[in-house]
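Final report, closing paragraph on structural work. Over the funding period we assembled a curated collection of sequence-structure pairs, and we close with a single example.
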Amino acid sequence: MGLISFSKVDHDFEGGIYLSPIGEEPALDAIETVDIYEGDLFLPLTAGSTSMQMIVDIGQTVEKNTPVARSDTGHCVYVPCVGTLAETTTVWVDGQPDQPAVRFKHGSEQACVEAITAQALPEPILPAKIVQDEAQRLAVLHLLERSGLTVDGGELLVSRLQRLQRQGNIKMVVANATPLEPALNTPLAILESMPAEVFAGLAIIKAWLGAEEAVVAYPHHFDINHEAAEHWQVRCLPVSEKYPQARPESVLRTLQKQRHLPPGRQTDIPAVVFDIQLLLQVERIIMTGALPVDRIVTICGDGVAKPGHFLVPVGLPLNYLLKQALIRDDAECVIAGGILCGMALDPEKSVIGPGSQYITVIHRLPRSAAQECIRCGWCIDDCPAGIDPARLWQLSREKKTAQAAQIGLDRCIECGICSYICPAHLPLMQKIIKMKQELTEKSG
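Its predicted structure, as stored:
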């Protein structure tokens, strides 16, 4: 199996197109550890929009879990094994080009990836101690602060927790196991393989915040592990709606519709949503002292012969991972994310970042160039949320996010129907998602 060059990539791909189901959905019952990788890693020196500075000299040999870069806000990067720091360079991370990174040459006798081994269910003592013992609360805070673990948007998890604690109104913590697209089923794969670890991480955050309830939102067809959930006192709430629910706002809206949460504005809802992979990392940090030096990444799409879930070190060149998924010689586009709202990337320059989770590889990309909106109104007629996607598209071009919020931007459920139905092939979904993210950043 070969690797495509960036010359074949659709540079203008911005997501928001609809294709028929692309390839097989990766199986949920296996998370593979890639073969021992003997090449260089490229450790990103950014987290979201936050830059980090080197705190270890170039040329120095370091031990596993050594912090080699840190920001003023506490973001940091650790090495996954014994090795030597080489020169600084730039790479693509999660579709973003020219991100600073440091080349890391690991020791040839060291494996770069350690498999996550199954563990017996520990007794749920730690969450109880967090509630009862201030020293335990400070210990958890210190471990999470040391890890530099981040949430969506690059914010430190510690900062998010402290801000939520100051608000003092969080009554429910939610584990989000609902994929945006069927093939992007990393959350379900993690929940299938490591339910106890995920629920333990959720219980830790619940106890630390002093919330009343911990729940997991998951697709109604998924066979969830109720025994593990009961052990960690997590309530299982199936999501029965047909539209994608992957974003926190969509999950909260669905829980409102199902009357698990009170009606009203989402900014007033006493609940907070956490990603499944983040909860797994919390459990590993608190229970085992492991640092976030690896990621579980899903490779899917009809451009690979072996779609699957892979446990890989942060900084791994994407091309190596694509080889493990048996990328096809005639693949035409590699996407960070999925076909609804992903972004094309350069597989020759890309590496796995601290937030990497989904990579879609497309075999064939039947695409027409975007045109101007022809005012057909189809997107309005078919929008299940009852908003005007075409108007939101225009406001995104004019950078009028506040005005978009006034006409229902936050009601978008990100189903992608507007992009699918659009005869002008406008990437409506991608633009709307970007505006929602900008609005969240301004209000945060």
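Residues 10 and 49 are 25 Å apart (CA to CA). The longest strand covers residues 83-93. We thank the funder for supporting this effort.
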